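[User] Could I get a sequence and structure tokens?

[Assistant]
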Amino acid sequence: MKLYETVDVWRRVSKNELVRYRCFRNLQTKRYSVQSSDFYKLPMDLKRATFLEKQYLELLAEQAPDDRAASFDTLSEAIQVHEQAFSQS
């Protein structure tokens, strides 16, 4: 049975923008993966925040986090690789 711990990591982009990395730690392997990164801007948009939460849960239900993305020994490495992959998209 695969069990996951959620780990939300926040980064301040500017005074008006935040990014939240939606990460998981596989409790069996102790490895980290990043499912998504969600961006928020002031003023906060409740509809967008609700959509992001819904998307987060749907992605998790559809596919295991470490099947969706690579897993890493450290949280920092998982986030760094996630950022690199999406900055080249």
Q: What stands out?
A: Residues 4-87 form one domain.
